[in-house]
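Reading a protein record of the kind used here takes only a little practice. The record below shows the convention in full.

——
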Amino acid sequence: MTVRSRRFGLFEGRIGVRLDWTPFSLRSVQWVGLLLFVFVHAPTALAQQKNPRQLLDAMSKAVVALDYAGSFVYEHNGQLDALRLFHSAGSGGRERLVSMSGLRSEIVRAGDSMTCLQSGLPTQLLQVRRGTSLLPLLPGSGRAFPADYYAVSEAGSDRVAGYPARILEVSARDAFRYGYRLWLDEESHLPLRSAQLDGEQRTLAQYMFVSLEIGGKPKESDLTIGGETGLAAHVAETPLEDPLRWEVKDLPPGFVFSGAQRPTNGPSTAEHHLYTDGVASVSLYVEPRDRSASAIADRAMARGAMHVYSRDVDVWRITAMGEVPAATVERIAQSTASRSDPVQH
């Protein structure tokens, strides 16, 4: 079989040799070309490869910086919801989350304000931290995971909503926090799927995109609440500064105090504290209880990944709650005391 002669462009003008290929020499040159490609491009590919914590950083940036729209299913508290999300990166971040099953409900976020609408209930207007996403189960950037309490590693590859994905495993090192499994789009690093895991690696809650468009800017109508919004009910809290009356005297390892507030329309002596390890958060509420009712025994409640622990101390009700294991909220509630008092059990 005759093979047409051609110049091997890589060496043309340098060696000045014309190659007359045979089937054997063609295969040889193809192998040489492949090896040259690998040697030339492999260092660049390796340099661009991100480690697991860098991937988490890229994920947290992608959620905020990209335009995207898609539908996902969310499994939590023993139920399955279908939702649609629109996200626009412009103007400080705008997004809208719409329920596709059950009661009609919508959430619209624009910058640091959020509007919630649910059938039969007043519209809720909330203040949120800028950059907050309406996607559930997003634990934060790689810098948020303290190495003493979380191990982060790659766990293979998969395909979600038609996109190739890299799987990250975030494992809790103790019993005071949950772990995560994250599926990130290989190109954009947008989280396509996320699962929250307990200490036995059982799934507590998860979401997964079933359709997704990355890069397409949503229309204005996609980012605006549809229909009647009803009566507005403002829900806000006032930041509290020291001196605070209450403190947690035996925080779980890794958790720190990150701020305090008081409900605007609540008792003047009520305090709402927030504690976090950088990923997980626990809210602590201390408020005067109804004096006409007798104190009740300590009680624990759970709904999916959410745990609540309450106790009455004298004329006060102390409640700790968060998407953390039961041991975390119990320890925080049990060790909450007046700053001038010893820990009360």
Remarks:
- Residues 23-48 form the longest helix (26 residues).
- The mean pLDDT is 81.
- The first strand starts at residue 68 and ends at 76.
- The helical segments are 23-48, 52-65, 326-334.
